[in-house]
Amino acid sequence: MSEIFLSGLNESQQKAAKHIDGSLLILAGAGSGKTKTITTRLAYLISIGIDPTSILTLTFTNKAATEMRERAYAMIGSNMSTPPILCTFHKFGLLFLKFYMSELKRKNNFIIIDTDDKKRILRTIEKDIPVAMLVSEISKYKNTLLTPTQVKAGAELKIYQQIADVYEKYENYLLKNNLVDFDDLLLLPYKILSNNEALAKETSGKYQYIMVDEYQDTNELQYKLLRLLCMTHSNLCVVGDDDQSIYGWRGATIKNILNFTEHFENTLVVKLEENYRSTDTILDHANQLIEHNRDRLGKRLIGTRAKGDSVRVYESHDENEETRKIILDVKKLLDSGVRGRDIAVLFRVNALSRSLEEGFNKAGLNYKLVGGMKFYERAEIKDLIAYFRIITNSYDNFSFKRIINKPKRGIGKTTVDKLEAKSVELKKPIFEIIDEFSPDELNAIVGKKNSRTLKVFLASILDLKDTLEESKMRFLDIFEDTFDFRASFENLPDGFERQANIDEFYGYVRDYFIQNPLLELDNFLNEIALGTEDTELENEAISMMSIHASKGLEYKNLFIIGMEEGFFPIVGDGSDTEEERRLGYVAFTRAMDNLTCSFVHSRFYKGKRTSLLKSRFLAESGLIKGSLMIQQQSSSYKKGDLVQHKIFGMGRVQKAVKAGKDFKLTINFGGTKRDILSAFVEKA
């Protein structure tokens, strides 16, 4: 029976599926049949008599777990007395806590809170620090096993001292009310197992065969939890692709997969390099691009399909010309019988969807934004529109309530409710009440401090009305100087994206005024309102999405826009060029038949039109000729080789690991071990 399962696999897939005991790393390239391999391995283990209850398979999403379960059951049937556990990390944590929460002297009738609950609790503890920042930092602390005390001890800046205090109060609140958040579903099982060796051995003995999907996305906590689950055996099989590790910004550490063979001894490494998705031409460019990364285990996708058409590169003056070219291509595809669901447009920065959405709306093309909000539905853009509506129409109570405390100025819900009640009573807009009431009259409604804040806010709006009449081009600068709206997103985890959206919006407003010098701000707002009517047919809509959202998907016809330095790759403080390059590799390998990459010479950037340089990735992938940082091609290195370094002198190689076009060498220089890239040494 087991041979039937294996007959549909290639040689490498079969080798992985038939491996039983000992640690196994399946390096699965994009489109190489990863899910098919891991589900076949699950079915194979059960078919040779392994107890299903001793097999634990962990995934990152419910969707992946469901797909694997359906595929495995289709092979082996679902009539087992007790099926194997196949679920997300967090679902496994929940099941574990239901049995062992008492180990922490807590009852097992705990309640799991979602992100909104978490935000509400944190707002009651701290009102000045942005709640998104608190959520992000506390999650980061939990996933790196840092207690409030440890955070406090290591915090150099005052803001992180304050966050540590909030973290401590938040943890006490959860404990007192027997609540657990999403991160606790991993952290608490880890605490229980690390403090109870007998239970850890018992649990490890129960799950004799463990499989983990998307291992390149695991974080420090997940790795340490897996170590405990493998305390009594080494039967851990992980599947992943170091070249598709793109979630460093949310805590995933690529080192888990890069160092797997060091973490778990005698690991069998199986590389799945045969790609069943993309044409040879597309794969060739993807391979060329990713080979520029040094921090990788090294593999090369091998095509199983025809060579295919050349990858096209579009060069445009600006984003409007870029959009026109893509729309023209999309229309040709649709006219030739291609379905909308087989076409997608990807971008690195979400703000780039704005010009696409405008163009597609005007052209009458159905589209959907996958894994994200449409540009004008994003909170920061809706806030700006509300501001502009108040400036053009003071009677708009709805918009007034939306922005009265954005950015925060100490006006809470109670104050807004009082103003709204007075507005209904007098049949006057809130704006007019603030304008017409004397300070004493306003004090009586909302208190002295809030009264003063509201009067200042009103004066600012009136000044901006005057500015708009005098100079539409100066209006946005004065608006930003007045309210520091853009700056208010500075320290948020997604601040870069939000600020990029704001810059894009400001740029679009300026461009509108340049193109339509006789029209006013209210004309612009009306045009937006008309353009955002939702008429898409979901099933046949063309997909637009960020590259992050595209992971795991595939499209016959793919466009990647915004291939300029600063947009893709993102450059500057905090950016990781190797992770950006992995994103490029992910983007290229979403394409099945046709791929088009696009760059422009200028975009609206930081609120103004800026000249841009084409992305280095275009040259690195061999799509265009351009200057590259050429590295000397390294010859092969092995343990025992004698090498010379210009500073450290003579040394002997103790370990050599392929890293892109280089080797990462562990060298003993007279008793001192150093990790050096082979491009910086010569054979002696």
From TrEMBL:
Biological process, per Gene Ontology: recombinational repair
Cross-referenced InterPro entries: DExx_box_DNA_helicase_dom_sf, DNA_helicase_UvrD-like_C, DNA_helicase_UvrD/REP, P-loop_NTPase, UvrD-like_ATP-bd
Highest taxon above the source species: Bacteria
GO molecular function: 3'-5' DNA helicase activity; ATP binding; ATP hydrolysis activity; DNA binding
Residues annotated as binding ATP: 28-35
Catalytic reactions of this protein: Couples ATP hydrolysis with the unwinding of duplex DNA by translocating in the 3'-5' direction; ATP + H2O = ADP + phosphate + H(+)
GO CC terms of this entry: cytosol; DNA helicase complex
Alphabetical UniProt keywords: ATP-binding, DNA-binding, Helicase, Hydrolase, Isomerase, Nucleotide-binding
CDD domains the UniProt entry points to: DEXQc_UvrD
UvrD-like helicase ATP-binding domain segment(s): 7-279
UvrD-like helicase C-terminal domain span: 280-552
Key word ATP-binding present: yes
Alphabetized PROSITE patterns for the sequence: UVRD_HELICASE_ATP_BIND, UVRD_HELICASE_CTER
EC number: 5.6.2.4
PANTHER family: ATP-DEPENDENT DNA HELICASE SRS2, UVRD / RECB / PCRA DNA HELICASE FAMILY MEMBER
UniProt record similarity statement: Belongs to the helicase family. UvrD subfamily.
Name of the molecule in the record: DNA 3'-5' helicase
Organism annotation: Arcobacter nitrofigilis (strain ATCC 33309 / DSM 7299 / CCUG 15893 / LMG 7604 / NCTC 12251 / CI) (Campylobacter nitrofigilis)
